[in-house]
Amino acid sequence: MATSREGLTVTDEGALLRRLEEVVALERDALLRADHAAIGALGPKLEMLSQQILPLLSSLDRPVLNRLSRSMRDLRRLSLASLSGITAARSRLDALAGRGTELSTYDVRGRLSSVSFGASSVERRG
Q1: What is the pTM assigned to this prediction?
Q2: How far is the CA of 71 from the CAs of 29, 34, 78, 80, in angstroms?
Q3: What are the residues whose beta carbons fall under 8 Å from the beta carbon of 101, sequence distance 6 or more?
Q4: Which of 68, 78, 86, 112 is a good FRET partner for 15, with 20 to 30 A between their CA atoms?
Q5: How far is the C-alpha of 52 from the C-alpha of 46, rounded, in Å?
Q6: End-to-end Cα spacing for the chain
Q7: Which residues make Cβ contacts (< 8 Å) with residue 73, sequence separation at least 6?
């Protein structure tokens, strides 16, 4: 037995599968839109539905299993790509925030020396 979006019990494995596919599609769309609030709200629903369908996997037809597996694999790939983009953006912002405030160099004796100065509000390249 599973619980539907309205909190009702779903006894039909087809209804559970359709609900899981619906949530996967919503999660995919949220990832493509970078809608982090929706992603956060859909995560627990996706987890709950995934756990509920696990005992039914052996009774599903091969084409249905393949479709579900492909959807979940695509969602995982998209999630990892999104996370990678967020990580890259954060690294870039961190680099920009600290850029231009300190210069490390060596003096004539080979000792590390730092020169501090105010950060520029404009990034310069080249």
Answers
A1: 0.65
A2: 13, 19, 10, 14
A3: 116, 117, 118, 119
A4: 78
A5: 10
A6: 62
A7: none
